[in-house]
Amino acid sequence: MLETRDLTIRFGGHVAVDAVSCAFSPGSLTAIVGPNGAGKTTYFNLISGQLRPTAGQVIFAGADITRMPASARARQGLGRAFQLTNLFPHLSVRENVRLAVQSRRRAGLDLFRTWTSHVELIEEAEDVLDQVALRERRHVAAGLLPHGDQRKLEVAILLALRPTIFMFDEPTAGMSVDEVPVILDLIHEIKARGDTTVLLVEHKMDVVRSLADRIIVLHNGKLVADGEPAGVIASPVVQEAYLGIANV
Hints:
Blueprint: E1 2-11, E2 14-24, E3 29-33, H1 40-48, E4 55-60, E5 63-64, H2 70-76, E6 78-81, H3 93-105, H4 119-131, H5 147-161, E7 165-169, H6 180-192, E8 197-201, H7 205-211, E9 214-219, E10 222-227, H8 229-234, H9 236-241
Parallel strand pairs: 3-8, 3-9, 6-7, 7-8
Antiparallel strand pairs: 1-2, 1-4, 4-5, 9-10
Helix pairs in contact: 3-4, 3-5, 4-5
């Protein structure tokens, strides 16, 4: 479903991602780990289209999308939740999700009907908010939510878009202990559907162990390990590269 071939990006003399080749299949969840500065988020940015590579290719569903902008990739079914929240802060929680539903359906503006009459869009938005336990806060402006709820709202927007590729960049960052299970359960359900591909950047190894079918490890921009979680975590090269992994 998704593949990178010798994907590379240089910033001046620094190679942030160095000829990374990797393929990701439907029904799988791959965790991308590594120390700070390893190139994980940059690799995500290359896949989702926030950055253009210096060399290499991104292949999605058999098509070369390397030069396709991020917005077009999203329309093709490649969904990305960011490490930092990416919301419309002055709109309500429900309106943020409703706009995502509207975008997916490509529903245009009907001058003879107000948006409040679009019951099906609102109902679908509220169903998604139920999944992330935010329905009771649906009328609150997104910018007034605490950070943990903003992260949940961003996941809700991603769910509303119904992509075939889900990309989560540290989805539990800034959440309280009580909030984390809601997001982890959602990610587990997405993987269990069997027809989606999930990529996850995560520092918390307990989260990685509970969700991942596969781990790939980046270090200094290079792919240094790839395989089942137990084997990768036990690998000497990973324990050396990913500081702290030997202590978990």
